[in-house]
Each structure stands twice: as structure tokens, then as C-alpha cells.
């Protein structure tokens, strides 16, 4: 029996992970803030797949809540075999904003919580001799679109560091770097999507299925879709001046 803990498992990419993992028979622990949506998701997954679903209503911007989730990951009586560090959101604020609170909140949820939960899972899984940690990063981490890119660059590099640290222990670490995926993400951050070409949108189910295949192949960085793999290869080879110019273009008129 495998148990997977998915943060942000009630919507978008996290919900697609929850459905895919329940579909292969994994029991689940779902974490998000909205208790009503958590209960709905648990009912849906148990009815469809007969798996056990535990829910934890937690705000990953709150240190006590993050510690509660970390304690669940550290449990030896009810072990968690797979962590999906997925909860996150867009950060549509200028870096020069006088009020840095929204940036600090984004850092708490998408960096601090990922660090604390990844560490708790890594320690426990290492002691057990196996497990998997998937950190949902973004292709935005390869360009320079404000605070969000900086956060996701951290998530990708952090995942590579954690993978190195846990090498040889049986614990697999993978950073999933999606391109644009139709979820609640853009609406929640008030990001205009009308200029994004249809070919660049990824399907959440396919994204998750490709990521789980990459995990089986022990890939540390998973970039689903040939199109995005080609774009990111070009971005890695391009001079940073070109990356900054493309990022300015992509950022303009988004809000
Ligand atoms: N969609 C894209 O184009 C795209 C592309 C690349 C990467 N990503 C990344 O994919 C991940 C998932 O995003 P999504 O597109 O699936 O967005 P989404 O549909 O808006 O889902 C976000 C999930 O995170 C949870 N969440 C948000 N803030 C939270 C908090 N403070 N504490 C606990 N849970 C919280 C939400 O539940 P509650 O609101 O109930 O808490 C929800 O379940 C994020 O890390 C995002 O950066 C998305």
C-alpha cells in the first residue's frame, strides 16, 4: 500500500495528481485551506477508486499549520511514501511594491513550506530506505518574470540539491516544471491569458501522467511536452540579455 500526500490537492495540477494517484490505488492525504473542497474531493476519490482519503485543512503560509503537515509526513505509524509539494499561486506584484507582504506570503507558501515539508519527508523516507518527493516548480523559473520566476528557480535548484543529498538512499526527488496549464491559477492571480497561443496550453491530466513516467525513470527535472523541452533548451543556451528581453515581452500587459 502506498500513501501520497498532495498539497493543493483540491484544484488544478494538485487535483490531477490526486486523481491519478487514487486511480492507481494510492491512499491519499490532501492538504489545502478550503475544508469544504477537501471534503468534496475526498468523497469523489473514495467513491471512484475505493481508496482512503485523509484531509488536512492547513494554510501553508502559517508556520503552525506547516509544522502540523510536517509532523504528518514524519509519522512512522502511518508512513507517507510520496509527497507532492504543489500548493502555489501567481505573484502579480511589482518587486518595487512598498508593501512586500504578498511577496513574503508567496515565499512562505512556495519556498518555506516546500523546504520544511521536503526536509521532513526526506528525513523520514531516508530512514525507511525509500520514497518519492515531487516539487511542482515551473518553466517560469528559467526566465525572469518577477518574484514568481525567482521563487520557482529556487524550487528547481532546491530539488536538484535535495536529489543530490538523498542520492543512493532510495528516495527519488523530481522537480516538475510545467508550462501554461488551464487551472484556477490565472484567474486567482488576475493574469490575462488571451494572448497565450493555444499550442502552449498543457492538459493537467497529461502533465501529471508524463511527470509520473519521468519519476519512474528517475529524472530529477521533469519538463512535460516536447514543445516546452525545446523552449527550455533554447532558454538555457540563450544569453541572459535575450532571456530578460523575452521576459519583459511576456510580462507586459498580463494584468
Ligand atoms: N497553472 C499553470 O499554468 C502553472 C504553471 C506552472 C506551475 N504551476 C504551479 O502549479 C502549482 C499548482 O497550481 P495550479 O495551477 O493547480 O493552481 P490552482 O488551480 O489555483 O490550485 C492551487 C491549489 O493550491 C492550494 N493553495 C493555495 N494557497 C494555499 C495555501 N496558502 N495553503 C494551502 N494550500 C494552498 C489551493 O487550495 P485552497 O485555495 O483551498 O488553499 C489549490 O488546491 C503551483 O505551485 C503553481 O505555481 C502552475
Automatic annotation (TrEMBL):
Q: What is this protein called?
A: SDR family NAD(P)-dependent oxidoreductase
Q: Which UniProt keywords apply?
A: Oxidoreductase
Please state which protein family the record places this protein in.
Answer: Belongs to the short-chain dehydrogenases/reductases (SDR) family.
Per the record's keyword annotation, is Oxidoreductase included, yes or no? yes
- Please, which domain of life does this record's source organism belong to? Bacteria
Gene3D superfamilies under this entry? NAD(P)-binding Rossmann-like Domain
Q: Does the keyword Ribosomal protein apply?
A: no
Fetch the InterPro entries from UniProt: NAD(P)-bd_dom_sf (IPR036291), SDR_fam (IPR002347)
